[in-house]
Design a protein that fits this description.
Number of strands of chain A: 22
Distance between the termini of chain B: 5 Å
Strand order of the largest sheet of chain B: 1-2
Largest sheet of chain B: 2 strands, antiparallel
CATH architecture of chain B: Orthogonal Bundle
Helix content of chain B: over 70%
Number of helices of chain B: 13
Largest interface: A-B, 49 and 45 residues
Bound molecules: adenosine-5'-diphosphate, magnesium ion
Shape of chain A: globular
Oligomer: heterodimer
Radius of gyration of chain B: 22 Å
Structural class of chain B: mainly alpha
Chain lengths: 505, 346
C-alpha cells in the first residue's frame, strides 16, 4: 500500500481522513485519496462501497462530516458544486444530470455560457463551441436538439462533452462507460489520454475491470466505506483487485447449474414489428436460461417489450404455457406468468422516490389488496421476504429506492418481479453497471430460478455473461434472429460473427 | 447512437436533424395555434356583430387583457421553475388599495405606482423565501399566503371603498387614455412582456429558470443557485402583480377588500392555456400573454354575439382542458418522434 514518493509533484486534489454519514449509514470512514497531475487514478469497490459519495465530496455536493478536502495542498471548503467547478474540477456523475427541456448546447454550457455585450448569452458561440466538442468526441449530435429522448449512451456523451467544455485540472468520472459501446469507450479513453498528457488528473470509476487496467496507473479501493489500499496497478491481476474489493476470494462468477430442460414455457412465432424487428421465432423451455445476444440496437429490447405487451406487434404470436397472449396487454402477460425486468431501471423499473417496500409491493397489489384496501402488513412482509432473499443492502425497508446504490436498486427490481412468482422471466441487461460481487449474486439467483423450473430469457451485451450463463444463445442482427447456438458451440467468435451479420447463412 | 464511423470524415457542420426542426416547429406552433384561435374568434365575432371592432371596441379588448397579461407574465416565470404563486389575486387587491389610499391622501401618482410595486416585491419575497427555504410545496405555501394577505387586506380595508372620485383626474385619465386605439396601460404591459421574454432568452439567469424547472437535482449539481433563482422568480412575480394592482386602480378606479379574489385561477388558466407547462421547464411568456388575451376576450366576445355571459366560465374550463390535452398529445408525439430518430441512427 505505497504512496508514490513524495518528491514528485504535489497532489492537485486530495481527501484527508474524510468521513461522511447519511443517518445510520456510514458511507465514508476516514478515507484518504491523492490525485496527482498527469495520472489516471481508478476508484474501485463494490456497489455501496462509497465511491459516488467520495466523488460528491470532491465535487462540493456533500460536505465531509470530518476530515478535509485539499486543493493544491491547502484545505478548501466547497460551498456547492459551483465552487468545485470554478476550481477546475469537472465531474461526470453516475446518474445523467441533463435538462430534458433544454438544448444539448445549453446543457453543456449551463452556468458558463459564452457571453457577449451587456452580459447576454452568445448563442452563436455556444453553438459553435458545442459543435467543436462534438467533433472532438467524433459524434454527430445536433447542438440545438433538446436533451429529451436521447438514448442513455447519447446522454452520457453529452455529460462527457460537458466535462470537457472547460479546461479541467481534475476530471472525475463515475461509471461513464456503463452505457457505452466498445468504440465509444475507445474514443473516451483517447480523450482521457489527451487530458492526462496536458497534465490533468483523472479519477475513474468502472465496474469493467479490464477498463481499469487499460487506462489507469493507480487504484484506490474502498470497501464498506473504508479505505483499503492505494497502489500502482502494474503487477496486479484482476483477481487481486477483486479480492481487495470484496475482501474474500470471489466465488465463481458464472455459477451455472446443469439442468434438463422441461416443456416449452415461452413460444414466440414469427413475431414482427414493422421497422423494428422481423420474423422472430424462438422457444424457451422450463429450466433453461436462453441468452439473447447482439449489438446495441439490434432489436433485442424491442422484442422483449413486444413479447411482454408493452409495445404492440404487427404479426406473429406469443404463447406462455401453451396459451396465446393478447397483443399489447402487459396485464394478461403478467397473469399468464410472464415477468420483464427492464433495461433502464431508473426510468422503467422503479419509482425512485417510493420506498423499497412499496416498490417491491407494486407487482403484488392484486394479492395484497383486500376488499379494495391495501393490506400494508401483507405488503411489508412480502417485500421484506424478497429483500432478504436477494440480500438487498439497505438501512430501513421504508427508505426511498433512490438512496440505494445501483446494484441494490437492480436487486429491488428483480425482487419486485420475482415476487410475482413468474414461470417465464425476461431480464434485459440484468447486470449492467453493477459490481462483480452483486453480479455473481444475480447470476446465482438466475441459475437457481432456472433450476426451480423457471424459463429465463436473458438479454445481455456482456459476452462473457452470455457465454457463462446461457444454455443456448440466440443472436440478433438488425432486427432479425441470425443464429441459435447451443452452449457447447457458443464462443466469442461464433456469437460475434452472428451479431455483426458475418455468420454463414 | 449517433456516431460516425471512423472512415467518415468529420463534417464541418452537423445538418439540423429532422427531430430538432420538428420540436422547434411544435413549440412555435403552440403559440401560433393560440394566436389563430384568438384571431378566428375575433373574426367570427366581427362577422356576427360589425360593431365589435370599433376603435373603442379594440381599446376595451386591450384594456381588459392588459392586467391579466401582466400578472400572467409574472406567473409564467414562477411556473417555469416548477412552482406556482396562488397569492397573486390577494397581492393585486392589497397593492391596488394601498396605492389608492395613498392617492386619496393627495399623493403623487408615480410614487403610488412605485409603492404598489414595492409592496408586491415584499409579498413576492415572502413567498419566495417560504418556498425556497421550507421544504413545502409551492401550492400549499402560496395557498397559505393567499389567505394571509387577503386577511390583512380585509382587516385593514374593512368596509371602506375607493372610487374614481377619490383619485387625481390625471391618474384616472391615464388609465383609460391611449394612443388612438392602443391604451397606455397596454403599452406598459407590452414593454414588460418584451423585456421579460428577452431576458429569458438572452440572459444566463433566465435560462437557469428553465433549467431548474426542467430538472431541479441537475440544476443543483450544475452549481445553479436554485434558491436565489426561485426567490427572484417570486419577487418578479410580486413586482409585476403590484404594478398590475396600480394599473387596476387606474383602469377601474374602484377598489375594495374583495378586489382580485379568485383572480389567481384565471391567471393560472391563462398561463397553462398559453403553453407554459405546469411541471416546469418549458413555455414562453408570449404564449402566456396570448393565453391571457384569449381568456379575457371571451368575456367580450360572448356578449357581442348575444350569448349569455354565464357561459364564460364553462368555456374557460373547456379551453384549459383542451390546452392540457393538446400539450400531452404533442409531448407524446414529439417523444416518439425523437425516439424513432435515435432508433434510426442506431
Ligand atoms: N443521499 C443519500 N442518503 C442516504 N444514503 C445514501 C445517500 N447517498 C448514498 N447513500 C448510501 O451510502 C452508501 C454508499 O453509497 P454510494 O457512495 O452511492 O456507493 P457506490 O457509488 O460505491 O456504489 C450506500 O449504502 C448508500 O445507500
Ligand atoms: Mg455509485
Amino acid at each position: 500500500m505505497t504512496h508514490p514518493s513524495t518528491t514528485g509533484p504535489a497532489p492537485v486534489l486530495a481527501l484527508r481522513d474524510v468521513s461522511k454519514s447519511f443517518g445510520a449509514v456510514r458511507a465514508l470512514r476516514d478515507v484518504s485519496l491523492e490525485l496527482f497531475p498527469g495520472e489516471v487514478h481508478a476508484l474501485a469497490g463494490e456497489n455501496g462501497a462509497g465511491k459516488s459519495t467520495l466523488i460528491k465530496t470532491l465535487a462540493g455536493v456533500h460536505r465531509p462530516d470530518s476530515g478535509q478536502v485539499l486543493l493544491d495542498g491547502a484545505p478548501v471548503a466547497f460551498h456547492g458544486p459551483g465552487d468545485a467547478r470554478d476550481a477546475g474540477i469537472a465531474v461526470i456523475y453516475q446518474e445523467p444530470t441533463l435538462f430534458p427541456d433544454l438544448s444539448i448546447a445549453e446543457n453543456i454550457f449551463m452556468g458558463r455560457r459564452p457571453r457577449r455585450s451587456l452580459g447576454r448569452i452568445d448563442h452563436k458561440a455556444t453553438h459553435a463551441a458545442t459543435l467543436a466538442l462534438m467533433r472532438r468526441l467524433d459524434v454527430q449530435l445536433d447542438p440545438d436538439r433538446p436533451a429529451r429522448g436521447l438514448s442513455i449512451a447519447d446522454q452520457q456523451i453529452v455529460e462527457i462533452a460537458k466535462a470537457l467544455s472547460f479546461d479541467a485540472r481534475v476530471l472525475i468520472m463515475d461509471e461513464p462507460t456503463a452505457a457505452l459501446t466498445g468504440s465509444e469507450v475507445a474514443r473516451l479513453f483517447n480523450v482521457v489520454r489527451t487530458l492526462r498528457e496536458q497534465g490533468a488528473a483523472v479519477l475513474f470509476i468502472s465496474h469493467r475491470l479490464e477498463e481499469i487496467f487499460q487506462i489507469c496507473e493507480r487504484v484506490t479501493t474502498l470497501r464498506d466505506g473504508a479505505w483499503i489500499a492505494s497502489e500502482p496497478l502494474a503487477g496486479m491481476t484482476e483477481d487481486d483487485l477483486v479480492r481487495r474489493m470484496v475482501g474474500r476470494d470471489l466465488d465463481e462468477l458464472y455459477p451455472k447449474q446443469d439442468v434438463v430442460p422441461g416443456e416449452v414455457a415461452l413460444s414466440v412465432r414469427r413475431l414482427t414489428r414493422e421497422g423494428v424487428f422481423t420474423d422472430v421465432s424462438f422457444e424457451v423451455r422450463r429450466g433453461e436460461i436462453v441468452g439473447l445476444a447482439g449489438l446495441v440496437g439490434a432489436g433485442r429490447t424491442e422484442v422483449a417489450r413486444a413479447v411482454f405487451g408493452v409495445d404492440r406487434w404487427d404479426a406473429g404470436e406469443v404463447s406462455v404455457g401453451g396459451k396465446a397472449l393478447v397483443n399489447g396487454a402487459p396485464s394478461t402477460a403478467m397473469a399468464a406468468g410472464l415477468a420483464l425486468v427492464p433495461e433502464d431501471r431508473r426510468a422503467q423499473g422503479l419509482v425512485m422516490d417510493m420506498s423499497i417496500e412499496r416498490n417491491i409491493g407494486l407487482t403484488g397489489l392484486r394479492t395484497t389488496v383486500k376488499a379494495g384496501l391495501m393490506d400494508r402488513g401483507a405488503e411489508r412482509s412480502r417485500s421484506l421476504d424478497w429483500a432478504v432473499k436477494l440480500q438487498v443492502k439497505y438501512a430501513r425497508i421504508a427508505d426511498a429506492v433512490s438512496t440505494l446504490s445501483g446494484g441494490n436498486q437492480q436487486k429491488v427490481v428483480l425482487a419486485k418481479w420475482l415476487a410475482t412468482r413468474p414461470d417465464v422471466l425476461i431480464v434485459d441487461e440484468p447486470t449492467r453497471g453493477i459490481d462483480v460481487g452483486t453480479k455473481a449474486e444475480v447470476h446465482r439467483l438466475l441459475s437457481e430460478l432456472a433450476a426451480d423450473g423457471v424459463a429465463v430469457l436473458m438479454i445481455s451485451s456482456d459476452l462473457p455473461e452470455v457465454l457463462g450463463m446461457a444454455d443456448r444463445v440466440l443472436v440478433m442482427h438488425e432486427g432479425r434472429l441470425t443464429a441459435e447456438i447451443p452452449r457447447s458451440e457458443a464462443t466469442e467468435e461464433t456469437v460475434m460473427a452472428a451479431a455483426t451479420g458475418r455468420a454463414a447463412a | 447512437m449517433t456516431v460516425t464511423t471512423p472512415e467518415q470524415a468529420p463534417v464541418a457542420e452537423v445538418p439540423k436533424e429532422g427531430a430538432t426542426r420538428l420540436v422547434d416547429r411544435v413549440f412555435k406552433m403552440r403559440e401560433l395555434a393560440i394566436l389563430i384561435v384568438f384571431l378566428v374568434m375575433i373574426a367570427v365575432t366581427q362577422a356576427g356583430n360589425s360593431e365589435f371592432l370599433t376603435e373603442q371596441g379594440i381599446k376595451d379588448l386591450l384594456l381588459n387583457a392588459t392586467i391579466l397579461v401582466l400578472v400572467a407574465v409574472g406567473q409564467s416565470l414562477v411556473v417555469i421553475t416548477r412552482n406556482v404563486d396562488l397569492s397573486v389575486g390577494s397581492t393585486l387587491g392589497i397593492t391596488a388599495f394601498a396605492a389608492g389610499t395613498y392617492l386619496q391622501g393627495g399623493g403623487d401618482p408615480v410614487v403610488a405606482v412605485v409603492l404598489a410595486v414595492l409592496l408586491g416585491v415584499g409579498f413576492g419575497l415572502l413567498n419566495g423565501l417560504l418556498v425556497s427555504l421550507g421544504q413545502v410545496p409551492a401550492l400549499v405555501v402560496t395557498l397559505g399566503t393567499l389567505y394571509i394577505i387577503r386577511g390583512i387586506d380585509s382587516i385593514w380595508v374593512g368596509s371602506r371603498q375607493i372610487t374614481a372620485a377619490d383619485l387625481p383626474d390625471g391618474f384616472v385619465d391615464f388609465g383609460s387614455g391611449g394612443v388612438s386605439a392602443v391604451p397606455y396601460l397596454a403599452l406598459i404591459a407590452l414593454a414588460v412582456l418584451v423585456a421579460t421574454a428577452y431576458y429569458l432568452k438572452h440572459y444566463g439567469s433566465g435560462r437557469e429558470l428553465y433549467a431548474l424547472g426542467s430538472n431541479p437535482e441537475a440544476a443543483r449539481l450544475a452549481g445553479i443557485p436554485v434558491r436565489k433563482r426561485i426567490l427572484a422568480a417570486y419577487t418578479f412575480c410580486g413586482a409585476v402583480t403590484g404594478l398590475a394592482g396600480a394599473m387596476y386602480l387606474a383602469r377601474f378606479g374602484n377598489v375594495d377588500s374583495g378586489t382580485g379574489s379568485g383572480y389567481e385561477l384565471t391567471v393560472v388558466s391563462a398561463v397553462v392555456v398559453g403553453g407554459v407547462v405546469f411541471t416546469g421547464g418549458s413555455g414562453s411568456v408570449y404564449g402566456a400573454a396570448l393565453g391571457a388575451m384569449l381568456l379575457t376576450s371571451i368575456n367580450s366576445v360572448l356578449p357581442a354575439l348575444g350569448v349569455s355571459s354565464v357561459w364564460v366560465l364553462a368555456i374557460n374550463g373547456i379551453l384549459l382542458i383542451l390546452a392540457i390535452a393538446v400539450d400531452r398529445i404533442v409531448a407524446l408525439r414529439v417523444a416518439s418522434a425523437l425516439k424513432k430518430r435515435n432508433a434510426r441512427h442506431a
